[in-house]
Design brief:
Oligomer: single chain
Radius of gyration: 31 Å
Number of strands: 4
Largest sheet: 4 strands, antiparallel
Number of helices: 12
CATH superfamily of the largest domain: Cyclin-like
Order of helices and strands: EEEEHHHHHHHHHHHH
Shape: flat
CATH architecture of the largest domain: Orthogonal Bundle
Helix content: 40-55%
Length: 344
C-alpha cells in the first residue's frame, strides 16, 4: 500500500504524464512488474499502481491521504488547513465534538501522571456541568435539524439552502429567540429566509404546505421576529423566478414567460409592485402575456397553480393593464374561454 512519502516522489518523465509518479523504494516489496520486470508507477488521478511497460495494474482503489481542497497562496493554505473532516452545520455538533472522558476511565492526566482523588472529583463536577450546559442546546438542535431535513426534502431544496437555514437557526438559538416559540415554526421561518437569501422562489404558502400545524400568520410573525432581532436583510423576491416557475407548471412557452418578465419590469419601474404578493404578480403578468401571444390559460388555472384566489389575480390584472396602458386586452378576453387545460 502507498505511504505518505508518495507526495515527495519525482515526476515520471518517460511517460510524459504529470499524474504518473515513480514509486519510492520502500513502497512495495518489489519495484518492478512481476510480469515483464518493468518499472512500476503511481497514477495519482486514478489511484492505481501500474507497470510503465505492459500496463499491468498491480494495485487499485488506493486511498488518497492528501487534502480534498486546493490552495493558490500561502495565506489560503493556512486558512484552509485543518485536522479531521470538515465542519458541517447540518450536524448538531458541527462535527466538532469535545467532551470530558468518563470519570471511571479518567485516572491520569495528559502527561500520564496519576490523578489524585480531589482532582478526579473536580473533573467529575466539570463533566456534569459541561453535559448539563450542552444538553438543552443539543436536544433543541437535533429536533430542529430533523425538521429541517424533512422540509428541505419535501420542497426539494438544494444543499446550500439547507446550510443557510441551519446557520440562521443557530444564530437565533444563540440570541435566545427560540424560547417561548415553537421549534418547527422558527425552523420554517429560517427556511423561508434562507430561500430569500439564495434566490429560490418559495412563498410563505409553500413553506406552510410543507409544515403541518403551522399557519401563515404564525410563520409570518416568526419571520418578522428573526429579521428584527437578528438584523437580517433578506433579498427582495425576484419576480422573474416566480414567472418561470409558474410558467413551467402551466406548460407555457419561453416566449410567453419572457414577455411576462418584460411586463413585470415595466410595472416595477412604475413602482406599483411594492407590498404585492410576488406569485399573484407573476400570475397576472403571465395571464396578460398569454392573451397577447394567443397562449391563454384561465384565471382558475392560474389560481390553482399559484395558490392564490382568482379575485387577487383579477385585481393585479386590472392594475397592470391600467398602469401599462394595455386596454386592448379587454377586447381579446371576450373572444371566449381558454382552449387548453394544463395538468396542475
Amino acid at each position: 500500500m502507498m505511504k505518505t512519502g508518495v507526495t515527495l516522489m519525482k515526476t515520471f518523465e518517460e511517460v510524459n504524464d504529470i499524474n504518473s509518479i515513480i514509486l519510492p523504494d520502500d513502497t512495495l516489496d518489489s519495484d518492478f512488474c512481476a510480469e515483464c520486470t518493468g518499472e512500476l508507477i503511481f497514477d495519482n488521478s486514478r489511484g492505481e499502481i501500474i507497470c510503465s511497460n505492459c500496463g499491468l495494474v498491480t494495485e487499485s482503489k488506493m486511498i488518497d491521504h492528501g487534502q480534498e481542497w486546493r490552495a493558490y497562496s500561502s495565506d489560503e493554505h493556512n486558512n484552509r488547513s485543518r485536522t479531521g473532516e470538515p465542519l458541517d452545520v447540518l450536524s448538531d455538533d458541527i462535527k466538532l465534538r469535545s467532551t470530558f472522558s468518563a470519570i471511571n476511565l479518567l485516572t491520569t492526566d495528559a502527561k500520564g501522571n496519576r490523578l489524585s482523588t480531589t482532582k478526579r472529583f473536580d473533573f467529575y463536577r466539570l463533566s456534569k456541568l459541561d453535559n448539563r450546559s450542552r444538553q438543552g442546546e443539543i436536544r433543541n438542535l437535533r429536533i430542529a435539524l430533523r425538521e429541517l431535513s424533512r422540509i428541505t426534502s419535501q420542497l426539494e431544496l438544494p444543499n446550500n439552502a439547507s446550510k443557510t437555514a441551519s446557520s440562521i437557526y443557530r444564530k437565533a438559538l444563540r440570541l435566545d429567540l427560540i424560547r417561548g416559540r415553537s421549534i418547527d415554526s422558527m425552523m420554517a421561518a429560517s427556511v423561508y429566509i434562507a430561500c430569500r437569501e439564495t434566490a429560490i422562489p418559495q412563498t410563505l404558502k409553500d413553506i406552510v404546505v410543507a409544515t403541518p400545524n403551522l399557519s401563515i400568520k404564525d410563520l409570518a410573525r416568526c419571520v418578522r421576529t428573526m429579521i428584527r432581532f437578528m438584523k437580517l436583510k433578506p433579498q427582495y423576491s425576484k419576480y422573474s423566478l416566480y414567472i418561470y416557475r409558474l410558467g413551467e407548471k402551466l406548460q407555457l412557452s419561453m416566449d410567453t414567460r419572457a414577455y411576462a418578465v418584460e411586463i413585470v419590469e415595466k410595472a416595477k419601474n412604475q413602482g406599483i409592485l411594492m407590498g404585492k404578493n410576488p406569485m399573484s404578480i407573476a400570475a397576472a403578468s403571465l395571464y396578460i402575456a398569454g392573451i397577447q401571444l394567443n397562449e391563454r390559460r384561465t384565471q382558475l388555472e392560474f389560481s390553482e397553480a399559484s395558490k392564490t384566489t382568482p379575485v387577487t389575480i383579477r385585481n393585479r390584472f386590472k392594475e397592470l393593464i391600467e398602469i401599462l396602458d394595455l386596454s386592448e386586452i379587454q377586447k381579446k378576453i371576450k373572444r371566449g374561454p381558454a382552449h387548453f387545460k394544463a395538468d396542475i
